[in-house]
Each structure stands twice: as structure tokens, then as C-alpha cells.
């Protein structure tokens, strides 16, 4: 008998309080925050779905491993434990630990980017794009057309457009393409997975043209679970085998350990090329630290080594993906438009479709995110014209989509928390026709979503 209730494959070992607040209190908190959810005190948030990055709960085995952390400057046993755990899944020759994913990106693109270079991906994550552009190289997104259509039900909306990739290589010239990247799952494209077939094909194209192929592998385990669930011929495989095959197709990877490695901090760069690794290690020493700890403490390395063994558990992944889908499908069923199919780490609400009476440059995503907080203390994240609307030349152009992302921290909230989120969303749906837009009162020169102050219209 298969029961339908999703139960967490863990029991609670240590708890952190959630402070209950009234709508009246929250109305004041959000005014004090200038209607910017990043400016709230997290103690004033009931269910924090701002991000799944570094916000997950560690297991008792991870906390126990922290006690084993050895803080030797060079050659610590914690480093060897970490390196073995990474290479067990991703058997690259060189493993370079960093404090976060973006540090790995900065080092890689400092080494191989630069003016005149162009780097394609399915969709670059924003820190990846920013680091490429900071090196004066150009970042290009070549995701399949279905990946840009919120309603398309394609099972692998993170796939690279193979025809576009070959076309791009032909036009750009192999000498101008230092690397081809693939983001798994495709975070900026709705947490959508990439198929093994597509990874194999991209790998083959890169081999044919002798261009290195790197994974931005932050959600590798969630991506592997989607492959097992959705791809023909994959359902009997172990997740660890699928992950190793993904690694075998690439020449290297960048990683944020704040995602699937179940850590609160960390990252790494891994690769096979000896000469490039040597350049990267020298850059590492400049900004992160000695190559056997990077930007991390020995205890962090220990916790990540354990996290890497836990995240590939089939029980964990079934619950993880099932719970995110449960939230997304409940919202869709009550008539809230969401990006389909539901991704691995988050549910994306289509605020443009839900609030058609609010013009894009009156920020429907911001209006929805503020109301989710006021009604039920839920903190989501606007991914729309507030985040992307301001162009480098100073003009303001509506974003392609107006989304609100509800990102689910790993192993942190229970199904009753998720049921509460669903109830709050139902209330916000009732209020939707009366919601009003916002204008920006004050904004910084760049990355305005973090610190802008808003006023209601
Ligand atoms: C989070 C993330 C990064 C950056 O990692 P940080 O640890 O936040 O610096 C890069 N790529 C993807 C796909 C991510 O989700």
C-alpha cells in the first residue's frame, strides 16, 4: 500500500522558534522595511521562502562531523574527507574549495574569461553572468524555446538548444569560446531539469569542437532525480550512478555547497586540466585561502562531506521533489498560475497572470510578494521588473516575466507548514483583484531589488 501523505524522511532533533505575528503587526513591519522584503528582520517572518541557499537544516551526523573538524592550516584530515566525498560523486582530478559558488565562478572566469570571449549556457545564473561580464567576457543563454514558456509541460525545460549551440559555435569561432556551461537544474529558468540525453549531446558537441564543458551543478541531485523519474530507461538506476555519469560527461564544474550539498556555506571548483587548475589555485590563494581549505573552516568541509552522502538518498529526494510539487500543484488547482511543470527547489507564481490589472512597471510581483507577507507572514522573492527592469543605460524596461519565487529550504519546514502556505495563498487569491502596484521611491545604482524603497500606489 502506497499512502498519499508525504512524510518527512527524518524526525526533528533540534528546533528553532517561529514567532507568531498578527497581520496588524506585519503591516507595520513591512512599512518600516520600505515594502522591501529583504529589509525585514527574519524573526518577523513566519515561513521564509526567500531562498533555498544555505537555509537548510543539517542532520545530526553533519553536526557530529563538525566536532571532528580539524583546523590545521595545511593538509587537514577534514580536507581529505571533503575531497574524497566530492570525488566519490564527481571524480575530477582537481578539487578547489571556495567559500561559495560565486567565488568558484570568479576564479574560473578570471582565468578563462576576458574581453572578446563569449560563454554559452542553457541559462546563466545571475552571479555566473555577473562574474563573466565582470571579466569583460559575454554571457549567452541558449535554453530550448519551451524553457521560456511558463505554461509548456516539456519534462526537461532546462535543456540546451543543440541547433542553436552548434550555430553559435560556428558564428563565434571555437577560439572565442573558453567553455560551455550547463546549469543543473536551471535555477533562473524555474528550477527546471536537464535530461541526460541533452547533457550527452552537449558533451559530444564540445568534444567535437574541443571546447571544455563545465557544469554549474548546484542542484545535481534534484536534477538526477528528475532524470530517474522522467527520462526513458533511467527509472531503475541509482541516483549516484546518474550523478557519476553526469560528471563523466564534463571537464569540470562550479558548485555552491549551500544548495544540494546540504551546507550552510561552501562551494568548490573542480576540473581535470592541470595547467588551468594551477592558475586557479594561485587565484584561490589570493582571495580565498590555502588550497586545502579555500574559504572554509575544517568543520565546514566535514559537514559538506556528510551532506554529499545524504542528498543522494532516494527517500530524501522523493520527499524533496514530492513536497515542492505538492505545493505547486495545490496552487495550480485553486487557480493560481504557476510555472509548469513544478521545478525542484521552488514554486514560481506568475504574478502578471494573477494580477493583470497591475502594469509591469507598477511591479505586480512586488505587490504579490508584499501581500503574501501581510496576509500570512510568508517571505517570497520577486523575480521580475524590480529585479531586472533597470538597464545599464538607465532606462527601465519590463522583464520578460513577473514571477514570485517561493523557494523551499531543505529539510526545514514540515508538510503542515506547506499546508499553511497553501491556505495563505488561497486568501491572497481572494484579495488579488483589489491589490495595487508600487512605485520605487529610492533605488541604488545596481542590483536594486536588494535595497530599493517602495511606496504603494
Ligand atoms: C546559488 C547559485 C550560484 C551561486 O552560488 P553562491 O553560493 O550563492 O555564491 C551559482 N549558480 C547557481 C545555479 C546557483 O543556484
Describe this structure in words.
There is one protein chain. The chain has 16 helices and 14 strands. The model has no long low-confidence stretch (mean pLDDT 96). Helices cover 40% and strands 12% of the residues. The strands form 5 sheets. The chain has a 5-stranded mixed beta sheet with strand order 2-8-7-6-5, sandwiched between helices. The protein has a 3-stranded antiparallel beta sheet with strand order 9-12-11. The longest helix has 20 residues, at 314-333. It has 2 domains: 23-52 and 313-456, Aspartate Aminotransferase, domain 1 (Alpha-Beta Complex); 60-310, 3-Layer(aba) Sandwich (Aspartate Aminotransferase, domain 2). Helix 8 (220-230) packs across helix 9 (239-248) and helix 8 packs across helix 12. The protein is of the alpha/beta class. The protein binds pyridoxal-5'-phosphate (PLP). Pyridoxal-5'-phosphate binds at residues 53, 100-102, 125, 127-128, 183, 187, 216, 218, 256, 258-259, 267.
Q: What's the CATH topology name of the largest domain?
A: Aspartate Aminotransferase, domain 2
Order of helices and strands: HEHHEHEHEHEHEHHEEHHHEHHEEHEHEE
Q: Can you count the beta strands?
A: 14
CATH superfamily of the largest domain: Type I PLP-dependent aspartate aminotransferase-like (Major domain)
**Major sheet, described briefly?**
5 strands, mixed
Name the overall outline: globular
Rounded to an integer, what's the Rg over CA atoms? 22 Å
Mean pLDDT: 96
Number of domains: 2
Shape-level CATH architecture of the largest domain: 3-Layer(aba) Sandwich
Amino acid at each position: 500500500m502506497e499512502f498519499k501523505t508525504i512524510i518527512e524522511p527524518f524526525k526533528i532533533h533540534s528546533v528553532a522558534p517561529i514567532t507568531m505575528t498578527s497581520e496588524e503587526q506585519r503591516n507595520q513591519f513591512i512599512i518600516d522595511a520600505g515594502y522591501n522584503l529583504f529589509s525585514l528582520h527574519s524573526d518577523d517572518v513566519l515561513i521564509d521562502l526567500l531562498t533555498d541557499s544555505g537555509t537548510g537544516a543539517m542532520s545530526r551526523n553533519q553536526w557530529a562531523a563538525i566536532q571532528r573538524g580539524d583546523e590545521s592550516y595545511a593538509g587537514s584530515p577534514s580536507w581529505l574527507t571533503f575531497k574524497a566525498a566530492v570525488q566519490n560523486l564527481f571524480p575530477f582530478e582537481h578539487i578547489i574549495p571556495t567559500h561559495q559558488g560565486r567565488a568558484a565562478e570568479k576564479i574560473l572566469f578570471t582565468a578563462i574569461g576576458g574581453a572578446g570571449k563569449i560563454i554559452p549556457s542553457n541559462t546563466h545564473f545571475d552571479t555566473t553572468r555577473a562574474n563573466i561580464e565582470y571579466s569583460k567576457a559575454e554571457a549567452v543563454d541558449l535554453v530550448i524555446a519551451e524553457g521560456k514558456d511558463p505554461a509548456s509541460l516539456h519534462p526537461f525545460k532546462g535543456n540546451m538548444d543543440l541547433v542553436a549551440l552548434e550555430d553559435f559555435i560556428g558564428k563565434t569561432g571555437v577560439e572565442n569560446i573558453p567553455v560551455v556551461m550547463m546549469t543543473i537544474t536551471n535555477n533562473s529558468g524555474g528550477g527546471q531539469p536537464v535530461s541526460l540525453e541533452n547533457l550527452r549531446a552537449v558533451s559530444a558537441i564540445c568534444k567535437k569542437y574541443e571546447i571544455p564543458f563545465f557544469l554549474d551543478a548546484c542542484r545535481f541531485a534534484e536534477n538526477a532525480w528528475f532524470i530517474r523519474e522522467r527520462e526513458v530507461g533511467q527509472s531503475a538506476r541509482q541516483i549516484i550512478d546518474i550523478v557519476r555519469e553526469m560528471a563523466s560527461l564534463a571537464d569540470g564544474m562550479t558548485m555552491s555547497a549551500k544548495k544540494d550539498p546540504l551546507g550552510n556555506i561552501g562551494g568548490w571548483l573542480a576540473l581535470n586540466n592541470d595547467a588551468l587548475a594551477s592558475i586557479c589555485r594561485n587565484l584561490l590563494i589570493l582571495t580565498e585561502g590555502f588550497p586545502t581549505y579555500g574559504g572554509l573552516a575544517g568543520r565546514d568541509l566535514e559537514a559538506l562531506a556528510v551532506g554529499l552522502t545524504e542528498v543522494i538518498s532516494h527517500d530524501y529526494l522523493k520527499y524533496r521533489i514530492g513536497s515542492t510539487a505538492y505545493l505547486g500543484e495545490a496552487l495550480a488547482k485553486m487557480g493560481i498560475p504557476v510555472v509548469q511543470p513544478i521545478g525542484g527547489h521552488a514554486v514560481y507564481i506568475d504574478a502578471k497572470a494573477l494580477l493583470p490589472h497591475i502594469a509591469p512597471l507598477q511591479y505586480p510581483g512586488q505587490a504579490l510578494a508584499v501581500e503574501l507577507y501581510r496576509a500570512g507572514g510568508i517571505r517570497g522573492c520577486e523575480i521580475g521588473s524590480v529585479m531586472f527592469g533597470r538597464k545599464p543605460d538607465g532606462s527601465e524596461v519590463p522583464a520578460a516575466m513577473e514571477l514570485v519565487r517561493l523557494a523551499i529550504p531543505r529539510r526545514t519546514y514540515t508538510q503542515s507548514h506547506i499546508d499553511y502556505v497553501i491556505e495563505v495563498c488561497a486568501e491572497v487569491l481572494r484579495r488579488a483583484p483589489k491589490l495595487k502596484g508600487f512605485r520605487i521611491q529610492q533605488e541604488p545604482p545596481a542590483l536594486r531589488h536588494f535595497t530599493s524603497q517602495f511606496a504603494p500606489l
